């Protein structure tokens, strides 16, 4: 069975009868290695062909579907244009085959800019490495009617699929044969998985996993990146298939939850520009909020998509609607009072509900139940668009787990609209294994009903890499010096300083490491307080493990792990924090140990 993107249930409302019929046939009668896209913007010009079919050995096929009928719809046809009967009378339209050809050429021209997707030599040097073609589907015209109307003079017969050639009883081989008869030639070999990723990266810019600055597709002189990371098919299908209403995504660390949230925010912002209400993204961790905000700004969506960490949003609500801010008190008590005053303001209707076209909550596992209940009320009921991302294994704040609750009890109506993401794509198999050595007790799969909160065990995507380096040293200072040496070596190997992070269990270790790196003349960004995190700076990020939630770095160092858990600290709480920190690393992980407490012993086994 082929993979259709979006899922048919998510797009059936905008399909014509003929498009739905073709979608059902293609999905059911093509093999697993076929990828199908329906009405998805393609290439730098954002063209919208009805269907695009990709097969690793067959190539790329663009199809236009026309629900026209001989006589009642088609009045005249030639190779340039056709006259059809529209809703308000006769009108002239482009030949549907020419329409498909133009869509296909736009995509092929974009793909041929990539040196890794063209023939390097021989008679086809500079041409695409895979075949490509285009065709038309007439779901309401039989082959006999096609020939009787002499439409073969306007459109090549082998580039057409007719009504009687796409029936439900048709053999799968016959439909596939019809599709590939549209190609002028075949090919030997097959597109590799990296080549398929490059094809998808260029054809569908929305599925790109952005690294660094955004790529400008309209700049003909821009150099294409050597490595192109894209959503996998499950992630893309989920992102494109998210419908209206309340949705919950349960996903393990590194499964792409935040990436899907970013796609959804961009899609809604572009699809409903007429709405006067903004889209709100909330997260608990401030650096993650800063990073998401910078991504939305780079996409030109800062005015439509508001990204805030939760307590900053609460303060803004009190100020915007004339409510009194808390007075002098401890920072923890101040944060609690902020939230309670917003809740009270909403209850008194002094702070309005329904302020946002859509609300999206990243790190939902760190939101207390009363926070979720508050935020759910901020969704405009006419749109009713709410998305919550959740991973209980990454919940590092006791408040979110101290109370057993269901989503329904806090106003989230997601029964039947929850999705599970178990595959970890961020980490290599070796890094994920090391993280699990300490956190194994937390990662026992725990199935719940549709309204519960399951505990998911991550499954590695199988990406291989270096074994994490575990170094035993006599003192914490020696750990900091060893980390400085390894980060300097990583820079010589080609990693940028901004690709590196030192994640510490406490602020004392953080400051020691920052001082040591600075003494070695390495560029350092020591996150001390609010507002000083710059995701674009080319400096080593030094921060606490808790603050790193939601972020990722190619190179990560974890000092002081032998001191975990701290005296009097709950072991499970510390294990959660370690798991979060270790799974920030995408390529290299360095762990240093100078005291032999529980976690150090686990890593030594």
Walk me through what this model shows.
By secondary structure, the protein is of the alpha/beta class. The chain is built from 18 helices and 23 strands. The strands form 5 sheets. Strands 1-2-3-4-8-9 form a 6-stranded mixed sheet. Strand 6 and strand 7 (89-94) form a beta hairpin. Helix 14 packs antiparallel against helix 17 (571-582) and helix 15 (476-492) crosses helix 16 (507-519). It is globular and about 85 Å long. The model has no long low-confidence stretch (mean pLDDT 87).
SSE layout:
Elements: E1 3-5, H1 8-11, H2 17-29, E2 35-38, E3 51-55, E4 59-65, E5 74-77, E6 81-86, E7 89-94, H3 96-111, E8 132-138, H4 143-148, E9 160-162, H5 172-180, H6 193-203, H7 233-241, E10 246-251, H8 257-271, E11 279-283, H9 286-298, E12 305-309, H10 310-320, H11 331-347, E13 358-361, H12 369-376, E14 385-390, H13 398-401, E15 418-421, E16 423-424, H14 429-439, E17 459-460, E18 469-472, H15 476-492, E19 500-504, H16 507-519, E20 524-526, E21 540-544, E22 553-558, H17 571-582, E23 585-593, H18 598-604
Helix pairs in contact: 7-8, 10-11, 14-17, 15-16
